[in-house]
Amino acid sequence: MTERRDKTTDRARFERLVEEALAGLPKTFKKHMENIAVMVETRPSPRTLREMRTGPGGTLLGLYHGVPLHYRGSYYGNTPPDVIVIYQEPIEEICRTDEEIKLKVREVVLHEVGHFFGMTDRELRAIEGDDEW
């Protein structure tokens, strides 16, 4: 039986979950992931929530900032890295166990990586239950 989570996962442990999710990406995706930083933040700022039009009581678990891969042309160079941010507290707040946190981190990382590759939220929702992804 999975034990109920009683306290917040420490930052280092949460970051390891993010690293594991990235390491588990299929090689075909990993080989294209250049010039991208993946960060963990405690929670999105009020400004970020407004910009993302997250309404009252809404939750933001992760965010991709950048130019999706398929929009990059020959002009794309000497640019700062794209950024994926994974928000620790919102993920922990919706999960009851450590195993749920691990699964949710993987799901959010894959979702944001999908945005890096230019996938829309609709496309991502259609494949998120697919074990191949």
CATH class: Alpha Beta
Distance between the termini: 27 Å
Q: Uncertain runs with pLDDT below 50, 5 residues or more?
A: none
Gyration radius, in Å: 15 Å
What's the arrangement of secondary structure elements?
Blueprint: H1 11-23, H2 27-30, E1 36-41, H3 46-51, E2 62-65, E3 82-87, H4 88-94, H5 98-116, H6 121-127
Parallel strand pairs: 1-3
Antiparallel strand pairs: 2-3
What does this entry show, briefly?
The protein has 133 residues and is of the alpha+beta class. The protein is built from 6 helices and 3 strands.
List keywords for this structure.
three-stranded mixed beta sheet, 6 helices, alpha+beta, globular, 133 residues, single chain, Zincin-like
Question: Can you give a write-up of this model?
Answer:
The structure is a single chain. By secondary structure, this protein is of the alpha+beta class. The chain has a single domain (11-70, 80-127), classed as Zincin-like, CATH 3.30.2010.20. 42% of the residues lie in helices and 12% in strands. The chain has helices at residues 11-23, 27-30, 46-51, 88-94, 98-116, 121-127; strands at residues 36-41, 62-65, 82-87. The protein has a three-stranded mixed sheet. Helix 1 crosses helix 5 (98-116). The radius of gyration is 15 Å and the shape is globular.
